[in-house]
Amino acid sequence: MSLSLIFDMDGTLFQTNKILEISLEDAFNQLRSINEWDTATPIDKYREIMGIPLPKVWETLLPNHSKEIREQTDSYFLERLIENIRSGKGALYPNVKEVFSYLKDNGFSIYIASNGLTDYLKAIVSYYHLDNWVTETFSIQQIESLNKSDLVKSIIEKYGITNAAVVGDRLSDINAAKDNGLVAIGCNFDFAQEDELSQADIVIDDLIELNTIVLQLKK
After folding, report:
1. pLDDT tens profile 195-214
2. Angle 54-61/67-86 helices, nearest 10 degrees?
3. Is a pLDDT exceeding 70 seen at residue 96?
4. Coil, helix or strand for 64?
5. 112: β partners
6. What percent of the chain has pLDDT over 70?
7. What is the pLDDT of residues 153-176, one digit of tens each?
8. Contact, 131 vs 97, CB < 8 A?
9. Does 103 have pLDDT greater than 70?
10. Ramachandran category for residue 204: left, alpha or beta (phi over 0 → left; psi -120 to 50 → alpha)
11. Distance, CA of 140 to CA of 52 (rounded, Å)
12. In 17, 65, 71, 75, which residue has its Cα 20 to 30 A from 199's Cα atom?
């Protein structure tokens, strides 16, 4: 039976922390310039909530600001993220391309399911040529509920997937696997939290471990 792998993007394939801090600083400098912020950039708070959809990020980081200011900040932050990706300031995690090549060469299908926005994901996929291996990249923007379990379900339905694993670093990825009857592979990377990873079926410290794991799952 063929096996499909559905990967999260941020903190799983893409080292978001490399561009996160500078992009967030840019966004809060913009807020300072219009007198809407006068303290330190809440980078630690953002690290805690990494992985939730962006509209919810701004509700958390800017709870006392208007919807209009949040939307402006969201838009500017996205611009800065994309610009920083295109200028090469980000990076994939070690072994992404090696693992993708191995999976593709051995007949496994690869998908990406991310809480990131469509344009942001396109920038990463394009810059690193991930579409050489990835069948399709799905954004949370495509799902009205903004729920990752629903996003993964839409991939399963579109491609008629019956045997798959979800690979990701946060609880939303683990839940997306379990809610859809799939194997949950937790990545013990930058943004991972121990209490969340404890709920995964398998935990890895490096993506290269997947080359062995997929063979076991395929049996």
Report:
1. 999 999 999 999 999 999 99
2. 120
3. yes
4. coil
5. 7, 137
6. 99
7. 999 999 999 999 999 999 999 999
8. no
9. yes
10. beta
11. 10
12. 17
**If DSSP codes are grouped into helix, strand and coil, which group holds residue 181?**
coil
Give the CB-side neighbour count of residue 78, counting CA atoms within 13 A: 19
Q: Whole-model pTM? A: 0.90
Q: Say if residue 104 is exposed, middle or buried (CB neighbours under 10 Å; 0-12, 13-18, 19+).
A: middle
Token couple for 119: 């344009």
Place of tokens 């912020």: 37
| DSSP reduced 3-state for 55 | helix
What does pLDDT average to over the chain? 94
Average pLDDT over residues 98-113: 97
Task: Give the separation between CA 83 and CA 218, rounded to whole angstroms.
Answer: 39
How wide is the angle at C-alpha 172 spanned by C-alphas 49 and 192, nearest 5°? 55
Cβ-count burial 18-44 (b if 16+ within 10 Å, e if not): bbbeebbebbbebbeeeebbeeebbee
Give helix then strand counts, H and E, for the chain: 10, 6
Would you state the pLDDT for residue 1?
Answer: 59
**E-only strand ranges, 140-200:** 164-168, 183-187
Q: Which two tokens stand for residue 132?
A: 């050489």
